[in-house]
Amino acid sequence: MTVGLRHVLFCDLDGTLVLDNSFHIFLSALWSAAGPAGRASLALALGLRLAGRAGGGHRGMKRRVMGWFARQPVAWQEAVAARTVARLRPTLSRPVLAVLEEARAAGGTVVLATAAPAVYARHLAVEIGAAACIASDGTGRGFVERLAGAKAEACRDLLAALPGGRTGCVVTVLTDHADDLPLLAMADRIVLQAEAAEAESILRRLPDGAGEVTVVDPCAAQAGGGFWLWFDDRPVGPLDVWEVRMALSKHRHAAIHAGGGRWRRILPGQALEPAGRRVDCPRPPSSAARLGLHLRRRVLRDFLGIYH
To answer: Is the pTM here over 0.85, yes or no?
Structure first.
């Protein structure tokens, strides 16, 4: 850490601190915990998203969902937030955690900065030892989505409030997405968790003189790594061949990481290759692939009783 300067790290959540989409996990936790009336309200809030701009787009959908959530009992809210965090933990990025832990050990200040709702983001901020959490908050007309420029502005305000202001800080930004270009423009150091092509696309859009860049690929094969499976909507790994065979004997509805961020369905007895072996958890399957696995399991196993 630069002598005499405060080291401040702004860490994104979705795709960075966790490899999953936290809001999708939050919606799933909401749906599971809500009764019939609650699910009807949620369906309306989500369905209006299909109306595009007329329905307020993604921001409008998020505002409606968070408004409904805020009207629920506090204990219920906390239970849903805890369930969301529990489901996100398996996809925590070990390389990102290592950067944050090293900085904190050297006296740095970690800030979780995300467009995700504060109702669960603040819990993750506590778990990683963050000094502050910048996240989407409020309800109704008071809803503020900390996305792109709004996130960068909030981070800029936080820096200005520190002793010495921005000039007294070395700023590191950890992210995976071009939405954070306004924040990346103020960084002295950049950690991009992205595949090579994605990282190159983001870096091309940065202004001249951008900070020192480190790229962490969440999909590439890693020396000494093992197989990764996805079942029951969570990653399991790294595994050796025997562990994979044992897992597949109990979990028929599974996918295996095939490399490069791709997953393919696998059944007991099928060849394990091609496979992208990794030490660290790879990026999860797409939402469509996960939904397909879930529906297949629900129909075949839970409704028809077909386990093998």
So the answer is: yes
